[in-house]
Amino acid sequence: MSVFEYAPAPESRAVVDVKPSYGLFIGGEFVDGHGTPFKTVNPATEEVLSEVAEADAADVEAAVKAARRAHDRTWSRMPGAERAKYLYRIARIIQERSRELAVLESLDNGKPIREARDVDVPIVAAHFFYYAGWADKLEWSGYGTTPIGVAGQVIPWNFPLLMLAWKVAPALACGNTVVLKPAETTPLTALLFAEICQQADLPAGVVNIVTGAGATGQALVAHPDVDKVAFTGSTEVGKAIARTVAGTSKKVTLELGGKAANIVFDDAPLDEAVEGIVDGIFFNQGHVCCAGSRLLVQESVAEEVLARLKRRMATLRVGDPLDKNTDVGAINSAEQLARIRELSAIGEQEGAGRWSAPCELPDRGFWFPPTLFTGVSQAHRIAREEIFGPVLSVLTFRTPSEAVEKANNTPYGLSAGVWTEKGSRILHVASQLKAGVVWANTFNKFDPTSPFGGYKESGQGREGGRHGLAAYLKGGDL
Ligand code: NAD
Ligand code: MG
């Protein structure tokens, strides 16, 4: 193990003005909520950042009304080229205020500033630019040009602003209006986005943000005047939402969990593969629905890959998310940390071998060291269930068909990775994997032009690309 000495390089938080309290964003204005305000904390320090309004059923009603009015009177009637101007404006403001957005995301979520700054925020802007380009070209979408109406959107805490962009940009481009509910542990960047909507002079009611927890989300998806429900989060809540909207005329898209296999063949360039394994499971503390949480490594190179992987994991810098050197930040909440600990303890009880990177964890805040389990079998819960943390399960295989069989042996089907030097093997294996996205010799690559979504319990519908328009146009196939 080698530990590099380095000087801390903290990003300044002076660039963000975190207000002591926030209201709801309804009809173009910040208004008081009628529920019980809740606190959002910085998970790296447990410091309370702000108190945020809780939307009750009456607030959700007001937000849906504002969205309906904006849809009927202005937004759906506006020529696509006019809507595009607003979306381009929002995209440009996101770029101009990118440092502020990145710091706030890192503070409220716990993710390293390097990732918020270099991954989340640039892709957020790219999404708005991309869908701005579609707004006046919908007749070539293949799904018609008629918006669905009012979209109720519920998003998780792992990529707060990015999930907002995935939901809001295509909805608006197609002429829908939205009521969005961010996750209760990470509401702040959505509220800053509301300010950006004001700055862009977006017509009142086109975007509404209601903060709160599950009850607020439930009120939103169940609201009779919501025409379209879009959800990203746990499979359990996704199923509950599917039951809520069953029998109504609402359209629904669900992006749920995953348990991706990252398959390393013996001819793969091993150092590159190790980087891909690390990126696959430790990016964003493993709070990634498409994380490569199951490493399937060919038996002949398993020992070598594990040795190199442990060496690499020992160099990961875990700690202050605002430090520009940090690779792995804080776990998003005490609840999520408890889940990760519980499943990891079960892994040990099941007989898997646990190894954690030797790193010092800060005293305050929510932390979990980069960890791997060896000797994992397919029946183990750590191989089957989404841990949603920096925990990798390592399994081995002998033949390509065994790799495919093991990779597909999961109720999920969101993503997978294949590492090999042989192009023909990439095509052969990828075509047999039941996963919405398959990366070859890379992992966790995202682009607004590329559709993303799952099979089986990973959900239904696609986000991104032309396919992402289907969810927001009447002629879409879902
Ligand atoms: P969750 O599914 O409970 O929360 C996601 C969003 O849904 C949040 O905004 C939440 O307030 C809202 N919500 C909760 N209950 C609701 C309901 N009944 N109706 C409508 N909205 C509701 O996720 P969580 O509790 O934060 O995490 C639980 C597990 O989910 C994690 O351990 C992880 O495995 C998984 N998860 C997956 C993703 C993903 O992107 N696939 C994201 C977050 C969490
Ligand atoms: Mg928070």
What does this structure look like?
The chain has 14 helices and 18 strands. By secondary structure, it is α/β, with parallel strands linked by helices. It has 2 domains: about 250 residues, Aldehyde Dehydrogenase, Chain A, domain 1 (3-Layer(aba) Sandwich), CATH 3.40.605.10; about 180 residues, Aldehyde Dehydrogenase, Chain A, domain 2 (3-Layer(aba) Sandwich), CATH 3.40.309.10. The strands form 4 sheets. It has a 7-stranded mixed beta sheet with strand order 13-14-15-12-11-16-17, sandwiched between helices. Strand 4 and strand 5 form a beta hairpin. Helix 2 runs antiparallel to helix 4, helix 4 runs parallel beside helix 5 and helix 9 packs across helix 10. The protein is globular, with a radius of gyration of 22 Å. It starts with 20 loop residues before the first strand and ends in an 18-residue tail after the last strand. The model has no long low-confidence stretch (mean pLDDT about 95). The site of nicotinamide-adenine-dinucleotide has 26 residues, from helix 7, helix 8 and helix 11.
Summarize the structure.
The protein has 478 residues and is an alpha/beta fold.
Topology:
Blueprint: E1 21-22, E2 24-26, E3 29-31, E4 38-42, E5 47-52, H1 57-75, H2 80-96, H3 98-109, H4 113-134, E6 150-154, H5 160-173, E7 177-181, H6 188-199, E8 207-209, H7 214-222, E9 228-232, H8 235-245, E10 251-255, E11 261-264, H9 270-282, E12 294-298, H10 299-313, H11 334-349, E13 353-356, E14 371-374, H12 381-384, E15 391-397, H13 400-408, E16 415-419, H14 423-432, E17 437-440, E18 459-460
Parallel strand pairs: 1-5, 6-7, 6-9, 7-8, 9-10, 11-12, 11-16, 12-15, 14-15, 16-17
Antiparallel strand pairs: 2-3, 4-5, 10-18, 13-14
Helix pairs in contact: 2-4, 3-4, 4-5, 9-10
The chain binds nicotinamide-adenine-dinucleotide and magnesium ion.
